[in-house]
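pinging the channel bc i need a second pair of eyes. not urgent but kinda urgent?? the chain im working w is below, pasted from the shared doc
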Amino acid sequence: MDCKISEPVVGPRSEDTLPASVSTAVKVVIVGGFGVGKTTLVGSVSEIRPLTTEETMTQAGVGVDDIVGVERKTETTVAMDFGRISLSSELVLYLFGTPGQQRFWFLWNGLFEGALGAVVLIDTRRLDDSFDVIGRLEERGLPFVVAINAFPDAPAYPMSDLRAAMDLPDDVPMVDCDARDRASSRDALLTLMRYLYALTTTASEPR
């Protein structure tokens, strides 16, 4: 007697299925230097099980990756992080977290395709890492907001001083953020959406 082995059912989990009420989906990217908390933010705020591409750091990165300030970090994103959050019953955000090490930055162009905006995560202990990140966004013309991630041992500076150090225009929003906290991460994303809406409104006004 033949015995058939049933094939496993492949597909999204029921809790990951997009609600039927959704009418608009927006792609945003979470960018920043190495170890600023991009994977943590996507994981804390995503309503679905996030996709991560973290790999154990090896000796191959010694002398290549700058780990000053994040010496205890043992894993790193090598491709992207992915998550989803519903801001309303009609609007969802697809979140794409970029790899932080510069040797993986060639992947950014693909991740930026179709994105409406970005959240730049900043670690004040390693503020210099943000300069190239912001420069790349400005060169591409991608709107962004800056979120200062909360690290226990990170120095605190007035927002005005940080804005001046990063040479940010006055209209680019800056917010405090704790990437470990869902509500705080959601607020950073809402800040981006409000900024994008304001840009759209301004662009449509008659001159």
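so The helical segments are 38-45, 108-112, 129-140, 159-166, 182-204. and Residues 182-204 form the longest helix (23 residues). — does that match what u expected or am i reading it wrong
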